[in-house]
Design goal:
- This protein is α/β, with parallel strands linked by helices.
- It has one domain: 3-Layer(aba) Sandwich (Rossmann fold).
- Helix content is 30%, strand content 24%.
- The strands form two sheets. A six-stranded mixed beta sheet has the order 6-7-8-3-9-10, sandwiched between helices. It has a four-stranded antiparallel beta sheet with strand order 2-1-4-5, with helices on one face.
- Helix 4 crosses helix 5.
- Belongs to the ABC transporter superfamily.
Length: 246
């Protein structure tokens, strides 16, 4: 279990994230939604210890910072230097570092794990391609492949669906479902709405503070949306079974 206990973040005296407490269970796929600037990426970075934060983050009762090898992180594409001269294979192989350490060359087991991850994200044929030569969807799949090669227990993904095609989206959702079945915990940050939200076990609605934590239909109510996004947002509800879309 991942426990976020009274975590808050201040940037230069400005409160970016109000204190919040959330628990995440094994085998759970959780969506983190909210408007731009709501603190979604900040929360993920606070969990990872990448920004100064107060409060505690525990994994199975112990500080997560001492168990970083258990965590796989997929950052936003905008945070990656796509001009860096490296290949798909090298990036995915980096996911095995926790297995072998930084200074040991990748052995047979590390290469097996990296190749299996490439197969799962359908990039074996592009393993020698420079990452800057890939499409947006392929680039997202590279870093998902790196996370899979790590064989972590907790997956934190920041806007993984941005700029991807329908095929990549379907593949990623299938991978998430398989990870859930293996008992992995996944937290996926997203600013996009629509029927994809029904894929999540829970949604967290954030705007500097936690506004709602429930099943998708319990979070995506008109009242909650207006609290998070403002009263002037234009909404359409396509059917009784789907959440609101803009």
């Amino acid at each position: 279990m991942l426990e976020v206990q009274n975590v808050s973040v201040n940037y230069r005296g400005v409160r970016a994230l109000e204190p919040l407490s959330i628990d995440f269970a094994a085998g759970e796929l959780v969506g983190l939604i909210g408007p731009n600037g709501a603190g979604k990426s900040t929360l993920i970075k606070a969990i990872l210890g990448l920004v100064p934060a107060s409060g505690r983050v525990l994994w199975n009762g112990l500080p997560l910072r001492r168990q970083r090898q258990r965590v796989a992180y997929v950052p936003q594409r905008s945070q990656i230097d796509w001009d860096y001269p490296t290949t798909v294979w090298n990036v995915v192989l980096m996911g095995t570092t926790a297995l072998r350490g930084w200074w040991r060359p990748p052995g047979r087991e590390a290469q097996r794990r990296a190749y299996a991850a490439l197969e799962r994200v359908d990039l074996v044929g592009l393993r020698d391609r420079a990452i800057g030569a890939l499409s947006g969807g392929q680039q997202q799949r590279v870093f998902l492949g790196r996370a899979l090669a790590q064989q972590a227990d907790l997956f934190l993904l920041d806007e993984p669906f941005t700029g991807v095609d329908r095929k990549t989206e379907a593949m990623m959702l299938a991978v998430f479902s398989a990870l859930k079945a293996q008992g992995k915990t996944l937290l996926v940050c997203s600013h996009e709405w629509g029927d994809r939200l029904q894929q999540y076990d829970r949604l967290l609605l954030l705007n500097q503070q936690l506004l709602a934590d429930d099943r998708p239909e319990g979070v995506m109510t008109l009242e909650n949306i207006h609290r998070a996004y403002g009263q002037n947002l234009q909404l359409v509800k396509p059917s009784a079974d789907l959440p609101f879309v803009c």
